[in-house]
Amino acid sequence: MKKLKFKGTPQLETERLILRRIRPSDEDDIFEYGSDDEVSKFVVWNTHKTIEDTRSFINFTLARYEKDEAGEWGIVLKENGKLIGTIGFPWCDVRNRRAELGYVLSRTYWGQGIMPEGVKKVLEFAFTEMELNRVECCHVTDNEKSGRVMQKAGMRFEGIAREKIFAKNRYWDVKQYAILRSDWIKQQTP
Ligand SMILES: CC(C)(COP(=O)(O)OP(=O)(O)OC[C@H]1O[C@@H](n2cnc3c(N)ncnc32)[C@H](O)[C@@H]1OP(=O)(O)O)[C@@H](O)C(=O)NCCC(=O)NCCS
Questions:
Q1: Segment 85-112 mean pLDDT
Q2: CATH number of 2-188
Q3: How far is the CA of 149 from the centre of ligand 1 (A)?
Q4: Per-residue model confidence as pLDDT tens digits over 39-74
C-alpha cells in the first residue's frame, strides 16, 4: 500500500515545465489566477477574494505534503520561472488503486497545450511510480476545454455522471473520463 503514496511529490520536468511542490512564496502567483472568476468558474473552489484565501490553500497543501497525502504540483513555466497553475490528485483510493486528477491554469497561458503537457507527465508518474491502475478526471459539461485536455492526454470519455458534484450551491452534471494503466502502456508504444 505504501507504494501508492505520492513519494514526497517529487519534482517532475517536461519540455516547457517544471512541476514541483508549491511553497509559501508562491502566494502572489497563485492569487493572480485564483482571484480570476473566469478561471474558477467551473472548479469546486471559490474565487480567492483576498491573499488569505490563497494562504489557506497553500497551508492546507503543505500539511498534506507532510503526511504524503498531496499529489499537488505547482506548474512553473521554465521560460519565466513563474508558477502559472497547479495539477494534482485531490483524492486517491488506495484500495482500488485509482485516483482523481484536477488542474487549473492561469488564463494568460490558455491555448498553448500547457495543461496536456503537464497531465501527460503526471500520468506517467501515476502509472510508473504510484502504481495506480486507473486515473479519473471529470469536467462540468459546459467546460469543454477541460475535456480537450483529457482527450489530448489519452483519457477516454465514459459518459455523463448526473449531478455528481455539489458546489457553489448547486448540483453539476459532469463528463467522466478515465485512463487505465493498460491504456497508458499501449499508448507508449509507437
Ligand atoms: C481547462 C484548462 C486547464 C486547459 O488548459 P490549456 O493548457 O489551455 O489546454 P489546451 O491548450 O490544450 O486548450 C484546450 C482547449 O481550450 C480552448 N482554448 C484554447 N485557447 C483558449 C483561450 N484563449 N480561451 C478559452 N479557451 C481556449 C480550446 O478549445 C482548446 O482545445 P483545442 O486545442 O482543441 O482548440 C484551462 O482552460 C483552465 O485552467 N481552465 C480553468 C480551470 C479549469 O477549468 N480546470 C479544469 C476543471 S475540470
A1: 95
A2: 3.40.630.30
A3: 7
A4: 999 999 999 999 999 999 999 999 999 988 878 999
Ligand 1 atom at shortest distance from the alpha carbon of 85: 39
Mutate to test the pocket of ligand 1, among 110, 155, 176 (most ligand atoms within 8 A of CB): 110
CB 173 within 8 A of CB 140: yes
Give the number of other Cβ atoms within 10 Å of residue 107's Cβ: 13
Band the pLDDT of 94: cuts 50, 70, 90: confident
Q: How far apart are CA 9 and CA 124, in angstroms?
A: 13
Q: What is the pLDDT of residues 110-122, one digit of tens each?
A: 999 999 999 999 9
Q: Is the CB of 87 under 6 A from ligand 1?
A: no
Domain map (residue ranges) of the chain: 2-188
Residue with cell 482571484: 35
